[in-house]
Amino acid sequence: MPLVTPLLPDHDLETKELAEFFNETLGFCPNSVLTMQRRPAISKAFINLNKAVMANEGRVTSALKRMIAWVSSNSTGCRYCQAHAIRAAERYGAEQEQLDNIWEYRTHPAFSEAERAALDFSLAASLVPNQVDEEIKKRLYEHWNEGEIVEMLGVISLFGYLNRWNDSMGTSIEDGAVESGEQYLGKHGWEKGKHI
């Protein structure tokens, strides 16, 4: 059971309008946003931050950003965000072979060295204590420029917020996210957990 009950999508009309963004990324407005709108300033600020972070201004693709989000969410254990991130990666054109083998990104041939560097950065930056070191930096700079690294860390930081929000709230997970979680993550033990 969620800590706080989500409100109806039309509770705050400004949030509802901004939340149309999620119909493209996920196919629905997330219950996390519907909970945030109990304080509309938070829901609106979050949606605008999400849009800014997920905008593509370099070579970091929409699909890679969502895989970065998945690695970050997997490291923190947030099952809600794991399912949302893999669903969004699928909707944003991640290769089927990458989706099927996301758990093996470090060794699977579907992932490039540039993608591995980005995903390892996501893992290192999501751990507590933080594990970003000179080796991670060196590998990032072999493939990415500083603006792209900022984009990646924006995704990691956004999902740090979401992981804490959704795991603490026990946010109820939507059917579409469950479907994607079971399809791509279930073979490795993914389940809804507290996100009923």
UniProtKB/TrEMBL annotation:
Coiled-coil annotated residue ranges, if any: none
Signal peptide (from-to): none
Alphabetized SUPFAM superfamilies for the sequence: AhpD-like (SSF69118)
Top-rank lineage group of the source organism: Bacteria
Stretches assigned to the Carboxymuconolactone decarboxylase-like domain: 40-120
Annotated PANTHER family: CARBOXYMUCONOLACTONE DECARBOXYLASE-LIKE DOMAIN-CONTAINING PROTEIN, SI:CH211-175M2.5
Protein name listed in UniProt: Carboxymuconolactone decarboxylase family protein
The organism of origin for this protein: Pseudotenacibaculum haliotis
Lineage summary: Bacteria, Pseudomonadati, Bacteroidota, Flavobacteriia, Flavobacteriales
